[in-house]
Amino acid sequence: MGYAARLAALNGVGLRTLLKDMSIDLDGLGRGDGRALDALAELRRLDRQGRLALGRHTPTHDVGDKAATVGTERFPPGSVLASATRICPHCVAEDLAMFEGPARARPWSRLEWVLDPVRVCRRHGSVLLHVEADATLRAGHDFSGTLARQVLPVLDRLRIEAVPSSGTAFPTWFVARLDGTRDAGNWLDDAPLPAASAFCEALGISVLHGPGTHPSSLGMADLAQATEQGYRIASQGPGDVEAALDDIVGRHRPGKRGSVGHEKVYGRVHVVLRTSLKDAGFEKFRHALREHAFARLPISPGTPFLGVRLGERRVHTQRSAAFSSGRSDAGLLRLVGAEPQAGGRRLRIAVADFAAIVATVDDHLTAKDVAARTGFSVKQVGHLEEAGLLPVLPEADRNAGSKRRFLRPDVDAFMARLFRDAVPVANPAEPRMAVERIARTIRVGIVEILRLVLDGRLAWVGRNTTGERCDDLIIDRDEVLGVIQGEGSGDDVTEREVVAMLGGVDPRNLWRLAKAGLLEWSPRYRPRDPRSVRAFTRASVEAFAAEYATLKEIADRMGLAPHQAMRRLDEAGIGDAARYDQVHMKLYRRRDLPADAA
């Protein structure tokens, strides 16, 4: 159409008049019909090469088909400008200086000026100006007439106001592709040109602008910059594309709760690839974005993304990671060592990385885990810990959660010690029976019976067939009863008696005092009283009472409320005698107290 418009201008007529006088079908010429092009070429008596060049630089389409073909590339509807053109004022000025004849006939139209993806002049590096035709024909417009009326009178001003672009790499590559040139080192060159150029524009918009940005909201210069940026990234290969997508995802700030669409994460690049699912030319780019999303976003298995459903989860959210590992959200954050996420961002962690972290604490068992592994109840596991038979991890090492943790090797070693001298027996009969049954029968704590087994004070220990759980441990009831009743000390004091002797001590914290080494458990029961009543040695209780005083006792002596007494002690520089987190009470050494409090 531009060539025909120039011929009309050379003859001093309009495009419509020329085509009518020469009997050339206007609609056919607008569609790039071969017969119309032959008739146009005949007007200037073009040789075979000229005719081929004319056809190569003319977009064509069939009747009713809105998509256009340029060379070997098929562009989607809207890619070819029919009622407008883009021009470079510097190129127009060069044409005016180079050619002879009427001024309106000297400027030539360029193919890239009517293709929507190109917005920059590759020769002069300026953003193209968009010029709407003032008289639109059915199949195009009169390029020479439009420039004569709208551009040539103000050409000098347009040259001064021309906006420099951020680069010309994209239009140079685009025109080279139209001419059939391909570069094996360019990642884009094995994809169709329309798909590759659309991906460059979409990627650039996502990189430079936020989600929800539509090309219609951007000016020509912004679109040119985005396309140039997208091309420079994509032409380097999948590594640079992945880095750009990482940056896009890194800028995303989701809330702590709820879900968010993938379009709100990736922006325009996701929109373009989602709306072109039926176009095989985009598959390469869909694959790149899909694999990035599967590897970076916490997508649930079975969720479709750009036409493909995720098989196995690759990224955990805080909630899915906590659920998969049987932990609370708080315990999970302690496990992975995550700090509170800035701006309300949610935790994301790769499944493989999380599995490696979980593997480091795989041997850390909760009391519930120990109970399931050994057959003891959770309460009995707690009693074993209090008695010092089952070691617990220090609080500083409990990165798997806030609850107390036991090491699997320690639990297995404890069970092995219980069964080290056990003799396999089948269908044991009284008085040989399971430990728990004996404890109920003679009203003795299971921990005390197990201590007899561990200390080797029983002559016979059995094991029910090949079992290795606590209910498979068989011992002789009469032997246990004889050992317990045959030993004891009249100086042992029960917990109730200890509380009466020590003012202000909470009976629930006595075991903490014993664990801290301030009290000593009695290894035996009192004579003629084989019950599950724990006892302490009288010597350790009397030594504690002589050495330490509780805050309640001090407050009673001073006639003050506990908080007032504590403040007075702090003002006097008297510190705690034991760490509160160990004994759960305020203890002071009597020798440090003033006379009215000692």
Structural class, by secondary structure, is alpha+beta
Q: In oligomeric terms, what are we looking at?
A: single chain
Note the beta-strand portion. 5-15%
Give the strand order of the largest sheet, numbering strands 1, 2, ... along the chain.
11-13-14-12
User: In angstroms, what is the radius of gyration?
Assistant: 44 Å
Number of helices: 30
What's the average pLDDT? 85
Shape: elongated
Which segments are poorly predicted (pLDDT under 50) over 5 or more consecutive residues? 340-345, 526-532
Task: Please count the beta strands (DSSP E, at least 2 residues each).
Answer: 18
Number of domains: 5
- The N- and C-terminal alpha carbons lie at a distance of 110 Å
- Give the % helix: 40-55%
Domain TniQ: 2-128
InterPro entries: TniQ
Protein name: TniQ domain-containing protein
